[in-house]
Amino acid sequence: MLELRHLRTLIALRDAGSLVEAAERVHLTQSALSHQLKDLEERLGSPLFERKTRPVTFTRAGQRLVELAEQVLPQVRMAERDLARLAGNEQGRLHMAIECHSCFQWLMPTMDHFRDHWPEVEVDIPGGHHFEPLDALPREQLDLVITADPQPLPGVHYEPLFRYQGLLAVSRHHPLAGQPFVSPASLAEETLITYPVEHARLDVFTQFLDPAGVTPREVRTAELTIMMMQLVASGRGVCALPNWALTEYLERDYVKAVALGEHGVWSTLFAAIREETRETPWMVDFLRTARETSFAVLEGIKPA
Amino acid sequence: MLELRHLRTLIALRDAGSLVEAAERVHLTQSALSHQLKDLEERLGSPLFERKTRPVTFTRAGQRLVELAEQVLPQVRMAERDLARLAGNEQGRLHMAIECHSCFQWLMPTMDHFRDHWPEVEVDIPGGHHFEPLDALPREQLDLVITADPQPLPGVHYEPLFRYQGLLAVSRHHPLAGQPFVSPASLAEETLITYPVEHARLDVFTQFLDPAGVTPREVRTAELTIMMMQLVASGRGVCALPNWALTEYLERDYVKAVALGEHGVWSTLFAAIREETRETPWMVDFLRTARETSFAVLEGIKPA
DNA sequence: GCATTGTCTTGAGAATCGTTCATGCTAATG
DNA sequence: CATTAGCATGAACGATTCTCAAGACAATGC
Known about the structure:
The structure is a homodimer of 304-residue chains. By secondary structure, chain A is an alpha/beta fold. The first copy, chain A, folds into three domains: 4-86, Arc Repressor Mutant, subunit A (Orthogonal Bundle); 92-162 and 269-303, D-Maltodextrin-Binding Protein, domain 2; 164-266, D-Maltodextrin-Binding Protein, domain 2. In chain A, 42% of the residues lie in helices and 22% in strands. The first copy, chain A, is built from ten helices and 13 strands. In chain A, strands 3, 4, 5, 6, 7, 8, 9, 10, 11, 12 and 13 form an eleven-stranded mixed beta sheet that branches. A two-stranded antiparallel ribbon of chain A has the order 1-2. Chain A is globular. Chain A starts with a helix and ends with a strand. Chain A binds chain B through residues 1-5, 44-46, 60-61, 64-65, 67-68, 71-72, 75-76, 79-80, 82-84, 86-88, 281, and chain B through 1-5, 44-46, 60-61, 64-65, 67-68, 71-72, 75-76, 79-80, 82-84, 86-88, 281. Chain B binds a DNA duplex (30 and 30 nucleotides) through α3.
């Protein structure tokens, strides 16, 4: 008997293009999906997709099911949202802070979407703080902090949102531009541009340069991504940024990107929340919306 | 995680009004449903329906889910139909005969519905046979026979459709009219009206009178249900018919009905088909449509 | 030409989940 | 106050559905 599980799998498969990544998205093993889809195909009596192509291509039957899934799953999600609201019809507050400078890109659509569905929850990003955002969490001055480096704090829970890769942006004429990846040593003579935050909060250092004992020739800071890009494009330095923060500049061929090391530097972005708020319907829904929006808006990220 | 199974259960529950009967409809036990619904309610954090009323009443959350189910399940069924057609795009023939005289009531809507979805399958009820319908099945002169008494024949499979209760229709002024049920003996002095078919094919005899060794004073036949009703209403006899064949006359208070014996006489209606045609997509779909239509159109029947 | 990598398949075992069965509880009915 | 019908519950079972480990296959690189 057809179940929603199958439809969710098919959507993941279409979005991902391969069983391996689809499995990640639905939080199952690749093998599980293989079995699941094989079962389904046997029961239906016809194959659903062509496995030998990349991305996979759906047969007519597969297309029909994907179509069904696209009809049905949004309806299911809407119902679930309504139910969550019916279950806990409590007032809520969701004040948040962002430690990650380039998060507005997906956070804004998330907030818009969320506001539509939870009018009774007050969503805001209060400005002008003088304190550490994470410390404001247990003090109930904030309810959610987006951060890439979780620090153990009593009563604070870190909910992984997605994983992203740190890339090195270099000018199009830079000698490193053609390489598949760079070694830490090759940054020893470069000017590295970073956001003006502590050294310890920059993955380039903690995960890449520090372990190799390398220090760039010079480090300078810039507040905004666009400023960094201008500096990089004009050859006045290189800078490390999340892959998704770079996509628009890469598409316009403004700068080039190379991986940090052979395997790349991967980080996880977290939503830090108070333990008590972890199970509230609106928090559950916000996190889900956040994840969905990120995957829809950002390219090259992976499930946590 | 919400699954279609849950939605199917809820629809069954709404249609049935009680867990016990809902369980029958989805071919599960009452306990299974109790567990399933309890789980669901726990995960959603709110009850879905009030169990202490008859029929059960849904909470707001329950209503919302029923609404979802009504949106989604028809879409799923349509998709399944399309898939079945995509899987086996073979031509088919579906010629049938009805042994059960009052089956047109649900068979006609079933055929209409089926024709819309399977234009390539030729559906017909050929008339003017001189042979036994069941014998025509293996000879491929017919493809499906609706019957209430399955006889073992090589290559013939009997697919149960639904169970119904045989009731005794009596005039409104008949002494038996007030009783909850009648004993076989009380028919000894009655005129029994039947369809003009063999004695052995009438449940009143095989399941009720014969075992008790009772013979009615007189047996006369009538071709059509409406004629029988006229005879019964005017006090010229009593007749045994399926409950659903009587509902329209009962509603108009034209005749009264009483059960045959303390526990009633229950029969099962079957679709007799050839083994080879049993798995073909259109046969599977026809049987499903037949069952769905029967339950929608007829009252007082139960799943086989 | 042969290792390497990434992807999908397969089969067996394991875990999980749902179902069954037996029983107990509650409310309505006579 | 017995009786019946409907629902809940818990233990044991059973069947899906997953994970794990191994293998096939194709594309890619040395």
